[in-house]
Design brief:
The complex is a heterodimer of chains A (464) and B (224). Chain A is 49% helix and 17% strand. With 464 residues, chain A is α+β, with helices and mostly antiparallel strands. Chain A folds into 2 domains: 194 residues, no CATH class; 254 residues, no CATH class. A 6-stranded mixed β-barrel of chain A has the order 2-3-9-6-8-7. In chain A, strands 4-5 form a two-stranded antiparallel ribbon. Chain A is elongated and about 95 Å long. Chain B is an alpha/beta fold and 224 residues long. In chain B, the strands form 2 sheets. Chain B has a 6-stranded mixed β-sheet, sandwiched between helices. A 4-stranded antiparallel β-sheet of chain B has the order 2-1-4-5. The chains are: A alpha+beta (464), B alpha/beta (224). Chains A and B meet through helix 1 and helix 11 of A and helix 2 and helix 3 of B. The structure holds adenosine-5'-triphosphate and magnesium ion (MG). The site of adenosine-5'-triphosphate (ATP) has 13 residues of chain B, from strand 1, strand 2 and helix 1.
Chain lengths: 464, 224
């Protein structure tokens, strides 16, 4: 075995330029693959990170309440009891909060938007919400916006990283306040201090309204920021005229996201035991369940246990789209390098026909010829992949450290982040190795098999 | 049945669509320990005969018997291990493994055979390196050796497994006459000490005359 390894290595070394070219191509593709895989992982992580701050806990106790068989509201009545159960039964949780769900129109003097909203208790989930950064003023406000300047609209500003920002998260502790995203502020042409009107259709087909003041504007998070803004939980209750004992969902944030399935399972079982009427598991966000629930004939309260994956599943297509585009790209690149590898092997086998024949004449079995060339291909592929993955790793780390801002709006929307962010770990590196080795070794099989079919007599004939 | 025997062997090569008859019915037997020359002009079929005995090629017709086995009854795996265990092959163009040095080239068949301990293996290789006079060239690659030195490496490689039969196709053709003679002397010495059967081809008369037995070929047939 050692001697085969030696021969394989020395042959690679002997054909330096060929080895370097092919190894370089392998490395290049491994690099591209590493970067793409860590980009996808980065987006996925961003989605978890932002998704859980915006619209879902890791696990949620949610559900629907139906006054009549033709209506439904995404609320949980008598939630304090459920909150207690969650606190005692889920020691894995590091934060448990509740939010009221709302959906309606935000109207400014200039424009209006239709958007899902969250009635939050800021003091409960301060740490969670603060993960969402305040936006620099220039990201949503332009002096050219025509507006009659009001006295109360000029709020204090402060500097952060050399960018001027205004407003404070803490003000969401007071009633009559609103926190929205930069893209929403831009559309409405509002800034901190401005008043806007909320208008929510209630189930009686009339709209209730309330005036609120913008107290902070958040940096956009791509697609995700289209689906959220924040107001005081009690304001949301007031608009919908629901009781203090009712909320939208209880959100559990776990210490370790890996325990999600366990916690989900346990809550389902315990709540069912305690006599709650449970909904069937359905991997959809709540707003896609509403219509169906409205059509069902039951009345009263049903509890639904959902996870962050369910609630953000409507954004999954972004990751899927990106994955399939990357897959196609990687596949095409792999095809090219497989063809290159096969060609190189054919050349090398043709050149070494006499050597192979000699080895066979001395007494090398077919499977040993196979092993010899397989080793040679393996070292080349493995070495190339190693170099490519290392370079990819360094590149990704480097790009991450620069926090490269995404300047193209579409990219921001799809990557759901303001900066290009990659995430690389052993999983990605491992994937790169597995994919490269499987594809390329399979590609190498045919030429190598042909080498094993060479007749030993070719050792003599080829020379003469 | 003799340990080595050709019985009415015919061999045709296909050159495109044309059949080239290289051997037209050759029969002879060789006894263990013989030192035999296959002689004949260019194109007479010497290489073809040696390839058949060396189990690297197969006859079109007739039987080739090596180590008392009909080679046509053996599959590729069995033929390969016959080559490894019973035969040693010395090629006209040396055919060393270019990326291995002298020592590794000679050791290679022993590594395939796996019947010696590392220590025995080293002793055996050292013995043959000494024997072919390449003590000072153990670390040289084939490209760093002269033709005669390469041929001596090839001889050591063929002998290192102590095969029963050693085949050599014009082992001196690429060497000057002095070097050629020393190679023949070496082969004769090993033949008389180890009782190894030697069969080699040549068209050099001075070498032919040193053999105990000459099989004369012409146009694919044996001249009586
Ligand atoms: N691979 C082949 N394809 C076609 N014809 C071949 C092939 N090998 C040998 N021949 C033909 O078979 C005949 C015998 O060839 P062989 O090589 O055995 O002769 P030789 O006695 O070894 O000649 P030389 O002294 O030149 O080496 C020749 O006519 C040769 O042209
Ligand atoms: Mg010949």
């Amino acid at each position: 075995m050692y001697i085969f390894t030696l021969i394989a290595f020395r042959n690679l070394f002997k054909n330096k330029s060929r080895t370097l070219i092919l190894g370089g191509v392998v490395a290049g593709i491994a690099l591209v693959m590493t970067v793409l895989l860590s980009l996808i992982q980065g987006i996925q992580s961003t989605m978890i990170h932002n998704g859980t701050a915006l619209m879902s806990g890791h696990v949620n106790i949610a559900g629907f309440y139906k006054i009549s068989s033709s209506s439904s509201s995404p609320t949980v009545t008598a939630f304090k009891e459920l909150l207690e159960i969650a606190k005692t039964e889920v020691p894995e949780a590091e934060l448990i909060v509740d939010r009221v769900k709302a959906y309606g129109r935000v109207i400014s003097e200039m424009d209006s938007i239709q958007v899902p909203m969250w009635g939050v208790n800021f003091d409960q989930e301060e740490k969670n919400l603060r993960r969402l950064e305040l936006a620099p003023i220039k990201e949503y406000w332009d002096e050219s916006f025509w507006r009659q300047e009001k006295a109360d609209a000029t709020s204090e500003t402060s500097l952060k990283n050399g960018e001027r920002i205004e407003g404070r998260w803490d003000d969401l502790n007071s009633r009559g306040t609103l926190v929205l995203f930069a893209s929403q502020a831009r559309k409405l042409k509002v800034r901190v201090g401005d008043m806007v009107t909320l208008s929510m259709p209630t189930y009686r087909n009339i709209s209730n309204t309330m005036d609120v003041r913008v107290v902070a504007v958040l940096r956009d998070l791509g697609l995700m920021s289209q689906f959220s803004l924040f107001l005081h939980a009690d304001d949301a209750r007031e608009i919908y005229q629901i009781k203090k004992e009712t909320t939208g969902q209880i959100m559990l944030f776990l210490k370790d996201i890996k325990s999600v399935p366990l916690v989900e399972e346990r809550l389902r079982k315990i709540l069912a035991q305690k006599g709650y009427v449970m909904m069937e598991k359905e991997a959809k966000p709540f707003f896609l369940k509403m219509e169906r629930v409205s059509g069902e004939s039951w009345t009263g309260q049903k509890i639904d246990i959902t996870t962050w994956e369910d609630e953000t599943s409507f954004l999954k297509w972004v990751v899927q789209l990106l994955s399939s585009m990357s897959s196609i790209l990687i596949l095409v690149l792999l095809m090219i390098v497989v063809l290159g590898l096969m060609n190189t092997l054919w050349m090398s086998i043709r050149e070494r026909t006499s050597e192979i024949g000699t080895l066979r004449a001395i007494g090398l079995q077919r499977r040993q010829v196979f092993l010899l060339f397989l080793l040679e291909s393996f070292f080349l592929i493995f070495g190339g992949t190693l170099i490519g993955a290392l370079l990819g790793f360094s590149l990704v780390e480097l790009l991450n450290s620069f926090q490269i801002p995404l300047t193209i709006e579409t990219l921001k929307v799809f990557l759901m982040s303001n900066t290009l962010s990659f995430e690389i770990g052993w999983v990605q590196i491992f994937q790169v190795f597995i994919i490269m080795l499987t594809f390329l070794l399979i590609g190498a099989l045919f030429p190598i098999w042909q080498a094993t079919r060479l007749k030993p007599v070719s050792a003599i004939q080829n020379v003469n | 049945m003799h340990p080595i025997e050709l019985v009415n062997v015919k061999k045709d090569y296909l050159l495109g669509n044309v059949r080239v008859p290289a051997l037209k019915g050759v029969s002879f037997a060789i006894e263990p320990g013989e030192f035999t020359v296959i002689a004949g002009p260019s194109g007479s079929g010497k290489t073809t005969v040696l390839n058949l005995i060396g189990c690297v090629d197969t006859a079109t017709e007739g039987d080739v018997v090596i180590a008392s086995k009909k080679t046509s009854d053996l599959n590729d795996r069995e033929l390969t291990s016959l080559r490894l265990n019973t035969l040693g092959f010395i090629f006209q163009s040396f055919n060393l493994i270019p990326v291995l040095d002298v020592y590794d080239n000679i050791e290679f068949p022993l590594l395939l055979k796996k019947d010696l301990t590392p220590k025995q293996r080293k002793e055996r290789v050292d013995y043959f390196i000494e024997r072919v006079g390449l003590k000072n060239h153990r670390k040289h690659r084939p490209s760093e050796l002269s033709g005669g030195q390469r041929q001596r490496v090839a001889i050591a490689r063929a002998l290192v497994t102590k095969p029963q039969i050693v085949l050599a196709d014009e082992p001196t053709a690429n060497l000057d006459s002095k070097t050629g003679q020393s190679i023949i002397d070496l082969m004769k010495e090993i033949n008389s000490i180890d009782k190894t059967t030697f069969i080699f081809s040549t068209h050099d008369y001075s070498i032919m005359n040193q053999a105990r037995r000459i099989i004369q070929l012409q146009d694919g047939m044996i001249l009586k």
